[in-house]
Amino acid sequence: MRIDILTILPELLEGPFSHSILKRAEQKGLAEIHLNNIREFSLDKHRSVDDYAYGGGAGMVMMAEPIVRCIEHLQEQRTYDEIIYMTPDGDLLNQKIANELSLRGNLMILCGHYKGIDQRIRDRWITREISIGDYVLSGGELGAAVLTDAIVRLLPGVLNDETSALSDSFQDDLLAPPVYTRPADFRGMPVPEILLSGNFARIDDWRHQQSVERTRQRRPDLLRGREKE
Ligand code: ADE
Questions:
Q1: Ligand 1 site residues, Cβ closer than 6 angstroms
Q2: Is 164 part of a structural domain of the chain?
Q3: What is the pLDDT of residues 187-215, one digit of tens each?
Q4: Do 109 and 8 have their domain in common?
Q5: Distance between CA 174 and CA 218 in Å, rounded?
Q6: Whether residue 24 is found in the same domain as residue 90
Q7: pLDDT per position as a tens digit, 75-112
């Protein structure tokens, strides 16, 4: 899979993509993540990427020309399955969307700034709009990093234990069960007996019950629509 991120602040994203799972995915050749600087596609001598909003009002708007030139430059080299715009008024990101996008080949992710991007880009070029939560960030970059991480870790071979993405919270609309590691007794707090029993069928059962209980307590909205356990 290839992900192209279109941004005016590529430096902001170099950190998240040069560590941990995202770096490993790139090293294994499972994902390519490219940072494209929109400013390089500006036509004026000041390399401007924003301008005043028509109709007045506070805040600048990202201009269509540099963004569309960047999009077209990438499209000349390959076809893209989605051109995603990160915006607080987009669809709220969830595991289902991450799963869906992880099955695609090439994605573009556009990061906005200021008061947003010229609406005409959204009307003509953007195929999907995604928000990472009901709050406003100063730009789409952190959202793009979150989305990229959520997608790339699902690609087969990225995680060491292939089954571990499947047992994540949300993967089946249930939160993950509690986990423990050594020592078996930490400051007088023992690990639940069942986990030391070696009976893996009963352990699976226990974990499932814990997931259901945790979901019932913390996110009862996820259980709606599921059959009663
Ligand atoms: N850009 C600004 N706020 C955002 C949000 N909540 N999600 C995605 N992109 C954003």
A1: 86-88, 112, 131-133, 135-137, 140, 143
A2: no
A3: 999 999 999 999 999 999 999 999 999 99
A4: yes
A5: 10
A6: yes
A7: 999 999 999 999 999 999 999 999 999 999 999 999 99
pLDDT given at position 162: 59
Q: How far is CA 209 from CA 91, 123, 149, 221, in A?
A: 31, 46, 29, 17
Q: What's the pLDDT score for residue 226?
A: 66
Q: How far apart are CA 68 and CA 57, in angstroms?
A: 24
**101, 94 contact by CB (below 8 A):** no
Query: What's the Cα-to-Cα distance from 173 to each of 102, 215, 220, rounded to whole Å?
Result: 18, 9, 10
Question: 221: how many CB neighbours lie within 10 A of its CB?
Answer: 9
Q: Note the pLDDT of residue 37.
A: 98
Is the domain of 116 the same as that of 188?
no
Q: Specify the pTM.
A: 0.93
User: Measuring from atom 2 of ligand 1, which residue has the nearest CA?
Assistant: 137
- How many whole angstroms from 106 Cα to the centroid of ligand 1? 22
For residue 209, the CA-to-ligand 1 centroid distance in Å is: 35
| Cβ pair 152, 140 in contact under 8 A | no
